[in-house]
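Why show two proteins at once? Because comparison is the fastest way to build intuition. When a single record is shown, students tend to memorize it. When two are placed side by side, the eye starts asking what differs. So, the first record is below.
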Amino acid sequence: MRKVRYAVAKMEELTPDRGRIFSLGPDGGECALFLHGDCVYAVGSLCPHQNAPLEGALVRDDQIVCRRHGFCYDLKTGDCTTLGGYGLPVFEVQIEGDTIFVHVWEDV
């Protein structure tokens, strides 16, 4: 496995506390970015409950709230706080200037 860094978005493309889905390179992977306070968080793009896209999902009380059924996920850990057994992958984020980079582990 190797760690790959993707430039996925510009800061001005994000709306505070509202999810936006971006591509992770040419292989079709995606992530959802959330601007909360002064931090940007990157998680998997789909709610694992029923694979609902997290586009437009809101952050409330430091939790991502899925728009389909209201399942909640901790913004920092991806853990589901609604029901055990679910969770979102969480990715490392780096910001350089106004560019947001997401780091992903990939098979070689």
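Second record. Ask yourself what differs from the first in the token line.
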Amino acid sequence: MLISYIYDPPVRPGLSAEESIMANDLRDLYEEIRRAILDTNVVISRCETVKGKGRDTTGAPGFASALNEAFKISLESLGWSPLVAPGASTSQSTVDWYKGRPSPIEYDRQSLGISLEIQMGNNYQFNEDIRRLSEAYLGGFTVAGVSIVPSDILAKHKADRGASFGDAKQKLDRHLASLYAAHARRIPPIVIIAVQHDSYNDDPDGYFEIQPVTFSREGELLRISHTSYKITNEKDRVILRRRKTKKEK
């Protein structure tokens, strides 16, 4: 996939999420996230979502769950796993992905880590992503949070009211503004990464292909292995119906 934009606002006391990650020597973990994005190949149809027209109007049906599956394959191979937010007991309070290491200072924070939320679904869910990333930071588990969302271009092919970079940026800005207005002593650093497909195919009906990848680490060297299968929506009922309708005409 492509990284189309990175929004990394500085927060009190002046470090942005990326700066905090680098300052705490977690560059390798951040690079794992970037590699999971850039080395996963995504090719989609030019078919765009028709908004406000009811069911089965999504340009690329099944894309959100397929992309989540591809990220799961990559991140699990790298040792990332879910993190239950402090004081929480339900799956709704679980950060999608987390990886860290113990702090070298015994009396400092519990761990030095990065929390990661991947939001390919409804745009309203991004507010919950912000809350979970903030809880992980304030609980001492992470030095920063990372959120992956579709670019505004990619969002045109996803479900109506789906997450997008522009909407996510507005929600994060509003959250940060409320914290500053309340004179919060600590502001969670969060970076938004907007991702986009690599290219378009020639299919007019919404067909996509995702080529997942796995990784292995040998010291500082990260080795990539392409999986032997592709994730597609070839058997999705919407795709099959669209193709059948065209054949009958």
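One difference worth noting in the second protein: The CA atoms of residues 180 and 243 lie 52 Å apart.
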